[in-house]
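Notebook entry, structure prediction.
Reason for the run: the old model in the group folder had no record of what sequence produced it. Starting over properly, with the input documented here first.
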Amino acid sequence: MADIVRMPALTGAEADMVDEYLNCVDCLGRSNPARVDDTYAALVAAQKLAAHAARLRDALTLMFERGEREIHTGTLGRTLRLLDA
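New structure, fully documented this time:
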C-alpha cells in the first residue's frame, strides 16, 4: 500500500488564501505578454486576476481580524508542494 500523504490542517481562511493565491498566479500566467497571442484572452485573465486578488485580500483580512498575525510558511509551503503548485 502506498504511503498516504496528508494535507496539513488549515483554517478556512488559510485554505482560501492558498486557493486565491494560486488563482492569481494562474491569471498572471494567462496574461503574460511573453506568452499570450490574444488580447481578449489577456484581458479576461486580467479581469479575473482583479477578482481573485480581492478574494485573496479578503482571506488575509479575515486572518488578521481573527488575530492570526503570522503566516505559517512551513505549513502553507507544504500545502502548495502537496498540491504540486
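Summary: The mean pLDDT is 90.
The old model has been moved to the deprecated folder.
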